[in-house]
Each structure stands twice: as structure tokens, then as C-alpha cells.
Fold these 2 entries.
Entry 1:
Amino acid sequence: MSPQALADLSSRLPDLRLLTEPGDLEHYGRDWTRRWTPAPLAIALPASIEEVQGIVRWANDHKVAIVPSGGRTGLSGGAVAANGELVLSLARMNRVLGFDAVDRTLTVQPGIALEAVHTAAREHGLIYPVDFAARGSCSIGGNIATNAGGIRVIRYGNTREWIAGLKMVAGNGELLDLNRGLIKNSSGYDLRQLMIGSEGTLGIMVEATLRLTDPPPTSQVMLLALPDMEALMQVFALFRAKLSLQAFEFFTDVALKHVLAHGAQRAIDGDYPYYVVTEFDAADERAQEAALAVFEQGMEQEWIADGVMAQSEAQAAALWRLREGITESLAPHKPYKNDISVRIGAVPAFLHEIQALLAREYPQMEVVWFGHIGDGNLHINVLKPTVLADTDFIAQCEHVTKLLAETLQRHGGSISAEHGIGLVKRAYLESTRSAAEIALMRGVKAVFDPNGILNPGKLFV
């Protein structure tokens, strides 16, 4: 790309902030995968919809690829710019634009952090219920681009359930105003839902209208220690039948070891193979007594080996840290991550098969399991041995991921539950989507992005 092309961009948009320093190129050119060497052309930080449109039109004229960028907390390489692309960072478009008390919606720019959305909703006595550990650094635009789920899907569903409207800049620079906050709208295809989960390959999000809801009743948090894998689904079925669950998260003893070493505090004495952090409605003394009765029933059935119920907000936060601190605690070990899902009813059979597969294929590696058992989403983290070169480690993991994808296909599962496909999983898309589906997806991409400038190389091989 010639210097004249960037000069033309600056000439067209004189107020646009452009970064070209090596440190900026490295910072904005990668996400949490750290597997590709960032090599973007430059970093554009627009402050308005008009500047985003101008960038897209310039990119079409000069045949420059664009990588949309939010908080870059992704784990699938969806925000990586390694081939001279222009990174279009939405970090400056990070404001709350409006609140509608009647519709109970919050309109925001895409660069706003999820935690800031939570704060803004609480200021109006409401909540935006999608939540996960990266809330302080991930952006709402990235959440929408991957249809993020998180820890409360069992109660509230995924991101797409909470998007009332979107404004997107398509690949030709045209601004699309999708759904406009309507609750009922049967006037043709719902392009808003098509954009959610599209990983920046169909358009660049410039505004989102979010649905808000009432805060949940007073809740209680409990940590459970389980004796074996079979108990996971038995305890989940018991708690779901008897309590109003907000979350039901599991992790293994190996995960606990790492998060304790990272500074979390042990809450249950002794060592057990599986643990669950669950949160449920407990608005009054009767509800708390019911929860204790359910816990005792699980103990009597020998599905639960031990447990503790939080006695304060601080203790509840400490129990949640045992689950939410896992990803951060594993980061120094350069984990290879699988984010997979199956139907809840298929979880037991799948777990048995996949546990045998991982034990056979990773005899010398530490494998860390955790996830959202209540919605069929499992996270598998393989930790790199220090003696193994990065390239050899990734090659071995990709061999196993191919086997994992084949297993998922037999069980009707997905190779990506909530992280997206990006660069990491594009070779395995056919395990989740049929050839006919992929062909239609490519056709949709060609309509919205006729010159193929939006996040090329992501999603499709």
C-alpha cells in the first residue's frame, strides 16, 4: 500500500485520528490469541458514523481490507490484523447516547465497555443482564459481533435477546438502521439478527439500542464440591427443578488449582474433582430454607460431597472469583482454547466421549475444563508445556481439535459457542454448518460486502 493511499484518507477525513507507530500497530493489531504477528497498515480511530462511512468508502476505492476492532478480548483471532489491513478501532465511539424510560432501552456507541453499560443501566434502576468476567475491557460492539453469552445465559439468554436495534455501516459505506427498537416487526427479513454474531464480516456496528430489564430478586451464591462427572448433570437437574437459577457454572480441580495460585481464596477444605458455583433467587427466609433443603437432598443422594453458601456480598464475590478468575490465571501458560457447545441433554454422553479423547490425545499436557453447564457450553483449555515449542504445541492441539470437531458433529454440537470462528476455527466451520449453509453464508457476505473488504479471512477459509 502506497503512502499516497493513507494521505488520501487523511485528506478525505482531516479530523480522523490515524496511528502508525510500531507500538500502536502491535497493540491494535491483535487480540488475546497472540498466535499471529500483528502487521496492520495503520490504525484508524473514528469519532463519528460519518467518519466510519468515509473510511469504508476509502477502503473500497483503494482495495484495502478493514479489521473492525473493539476491546480485542476475543479468543478466536477475529480482531487480528496480520496482512496489511487497516484496523478500524471503535474505541473513541464509547458513549451512552440516550435512555428511553418507556421502552426501557439504552442506546450506546459500540466502543463502550460492557461494565459501563451495566453502570448506566443501574443508574436508571434497571439492568443489562449479559455478563462475563471480561466486562471491564470487552466492548458492547464485540459482544454483539460474537453474540456473547457469559455466566447468566441460563436466566437471560445470549446477547441477541437484548438487542432492540442496530445501526451498521455495510461494506459499500451505506448506513443501515435495523429494527429501530421495535418489539414487533414482521416486515421481511430481520437483518439485525443476521448482523449479530457476524464477526464484523457483514458490516461495522456504529450504534446499538439495548433492551434493559428489572434487577433480579435478591440472590444467594453457593459453591458445591462434587464427587464425579456424573453428579454434574444430576445436581443441575435437581437445582433447576427446585430453585429459580440465575447461573450454574462448573470447573475442575485443575482449574481450582490455578485460580488459587493466582490469588483466590479456598472456600472448601479437601480436594474434589468437580466444583459448581451456582446463583439462585433467595428473596426471603423461606427461599433460603428451600435452597438448603435442596442442598441436603443432593448430599443424601451423594451427588454433592461438600458445599458452602455465601453469608455476605463479599463472600459471594469471593466464591464467584473461583470461577471468573480462571481465564486470567491460565493466561501465563499460553492455553490453547476450545469453546464448544452441545444440547444440554447431550452433555452427559458428550462429556464421557470427549474426556476419553482428551486423556488419550493429551497424555503429557494439563487440560483445564470449565464452563456453563446449564446451557451446554464447555471451555477446554490445554496448557502449553514449557519444553514444547509454540508451533509444535499448536500443531498437536489442532490435530486434536479436528477430532473434537468430528465428535461435536456426531453429537450435533458447535465448535464455537460464544467466542466466534475468527481465524482459529474457520477450518472447522463445516463440522457445525452444512455445505449448503456455508454457501448461503458466503452469498450473504457478497451482498453486504461486495468487494470483500470487511474482516477478510475470518469465518471462512
Entry 2:
Amino acid sequence: MEMTEIAGYRILRTLGAGGMGQVFLVEHPRLPRRDALKLLDAGVSRNSEFKARFQREADLLAQLSHPNIVTLYDRGEYDGRLWATMEFVEGTDAGQLLESTGPLSPTRVMSLVASAGSALDYAWRKQRITHRDVKPANILLAIDDHDTVEAVKLADFGIAKAAEETTTLTSTGITVGTLAYMSPEAIEGAEIDNRSDIYSLGCTAFHLFSGQAPFTGKTMTALMSAHLNGEPPSLSKFAPHLPATLDSVFTRVLSREPDSRYSSCAEFVAALSDALDGRTTPLTVPAYAQTIVGTHSVPGRHPHHRSSSRRNRWITAVSALAATAVLAVGGAAAYAYFQQRDETPTASAPITQTTVTTHVTSTPSTTTAPAIATVYEQVTPTEEPEPVTVTPEPVEGQECGLDQFGDISADGTLFCSAENGAWTDRTHQSRPAVTYGTECSEPGARARISGTDAIATCESDTDGTLTWGY
């Protein structure tokens, strides 16, 4: 019997199916919104250990709010099967774009790597969450009706960790992560941290530059051996038009030993930028990769031409809950925009800001968009300093710009949301869901109402009792 509804969500159509379940485009039961719903297979859902880890990972992921990460909305169980809903992204994925255009220009590669790196650094910094399946196909490009890239989002957080840590699942032959991009320690089943994701991001970047993954093999065993025993290939061998200085960057990021790799995605992104610009002494490296947003048309397509195959390129944000068991060599792509913001150094002397524009070209005949960096210089004061302008703290609902996405207010109560372009409450993320109308004890506290996406506030009722209400 064909399903028409899952846990109150009306099914609009099937988006896809994988080794662990199905993905549907659904209509939210209360809000005027369409979501992507991942319904896991009954066999996986019945595993009690996996179920517990699934729920734990979903609870952690629900607290992540970042413009380069697909948002997880809700989770539950339906007819003995686990499900989760998340943001639905209309567009394509980077792997499909690479298949259609081939290797990408350096500027586009940098924008993609910076976007994915920003998401990975944020997840590790906020919740110590590792992705474990970084690859081109998990980088989604949100595209509007004019074929303009609105945003780039990293998908497939969450279930990979739950599956890998569940002995009964891994023993049946499920391999978590796409092997062409998997780190040596992940292949060996060792304990991993963010440096495993940095390795996978390095494999992805190599593929973007050259058109093929760094390690290949005709069989799964051969590919595993290449990761475990082989030396990183020279990028200049496959892409001779690129600076040879990139070779040393990939030698480090693809090192078999995690301690020999870069310590953050930001450090890796900065090293790539330096190598492309011919610098041997790196600029100041930010603590983590900066947020990237897209505003440019998809390369190779007229900005006002809506492809006839568009209906086949609905990409779901099943990020929080999808694991792979395949050997694949994917592709990657990005929009032509890259911006790096260095942290302003602390100094007693005034700081002046200079915008430096550089151009990176993939071939002598192809000019790409400029990379923009903000450089801060310390100067000796020669006159009285200008009066300091104090920027007032934002209030909830106030609009915020692209350069503020992911920023947090000084008091830690609001963040600039990429979803609605406004300063949004974040205090509810640290509390479990509540039931509307029940008593509470912290006046002004915020929490999500169970079973919905609505946010409740702890406030006085007509009789003076503190209850959760709108």
C-alpha cells in the first residue's frame, strides 16, 4: 500500500532512496513549508543501540545553526521506523556540477572548500561533531529561478557516527563514508576527530582542481590500500596549469598521520589561498573557516535559462541522517565567490583597514572572479583618535546581512540566521522541548514547543503562574 502520510507530514513525492531508507518531499502539518523527510528502513530502526545513537546525534545536530549546514528540524518514529525532517534545498549538488563542467577554476574551488570548511569547523567547535562523509555529492547548491546560486550547504551529518559506533551494523558489512574520500584512521576503525574530516576535505579539493580523486583503485581493497599505504599524488601532474606550490599543501593535508595534517579547515583553506597566490609566508590564519554565501550564477548556464532537467535536480537536506555503503568517485563544484575575513589584531595603536583584490586564473585565457581579503595594518598615531562609534546590540527580529550570518550577539542570546535573514533567539537551543501551557520556573526563558518548530517563552499567566506560552 502506497504511503500518503508519515507522522502527520503529507507526502508530496519521493525524492530518492538509499541503502538505509527513503527520502520524501513532504508538507509540514502546521506550517506553510515543505521539508525533506528521511524514513529509515525497519531493519536499521529495530537496532536498539543504533536507535539510541540516532536520537543522541539528532539532538546534537538540532542545536547547530549555520548558513553552510542543512538544518535538522525534527525526528521521531513511525510504524516502527525512525524518521527525521530537515531543510529542503532546491538546486543541484557539487558532484553533478563537476560531471557537467569538468575541473573547476581555482576561485570556484576555493569558494567550495571554504564553504564546507566553515561548516566543519563550526560543528567541531560547537558540539565536537565530525561529519565522516565529506565528499562532493554532499555539498548542495541552492539555486533560484534565475539559476543563481543562493547558498552552499554541507549535507550528511549525523547518522554516519551512529552507524559506525554500532557493532551489529558495521559487522554486517556497512562501510560508513565514501571510500574515495575516507581518512586512513576511519578505514581502520580507529578513534577519529576533526582531522579526519580535514583529510576528506583535502581529497574533495584535489578532485575539484584536477577532475579526479587523489587515491583510486579498481577494487575496494586496492582503494583502501592506497589510502593506508600510498603517497599523495602530485596535483601538478593532473593539473599542470596550477601553481606547483599546491603540491606541498596536499602532501600535508593528505598525510596518513593526523598529527601531520592541518589542525583546522581554516588553516587548510589559508594554505591553499597562499599557494595559489604564490606566497610562501602565510597571512594571518583565522581560528576557523569563515562563513561563505553564494550570489553568482551556475557556471556554464545562462542566468535566465531554467534547465528542462531542473525538476530532476531537487536536492534534499538529508544531511543529519544519511550514511553510505558505496565505493564511489564523485565530483564537486562551487559558485564563483570567495571572501576571507581576518580577525582584527589586538593593539594599542589604531588599526586601519585595507581591501586587497587579487585575481586567480585557471588558464591564461580564463579570468575568474577576484578574491577579496581584508588586511589590517597597525599605524602610529599622529593626532587625536577619532571618537568611537558604539554599535547598539541587535534585537530579536532585526534584519541582518550576509556578512553577519552565523554571528552571535555580545550577550549570547541572539544569532544572525541565514534562514530568515534576521537576528533570532538561540537560548532555546540549550533546553529540551517543552509542552505549551505547562509550568516553568525561569521568567523570560525560551524553549521549542514539543512536536513543532514554534518557540515558547516562560511568562506569567493571568493568575501570576509562570507557564510556557507564545
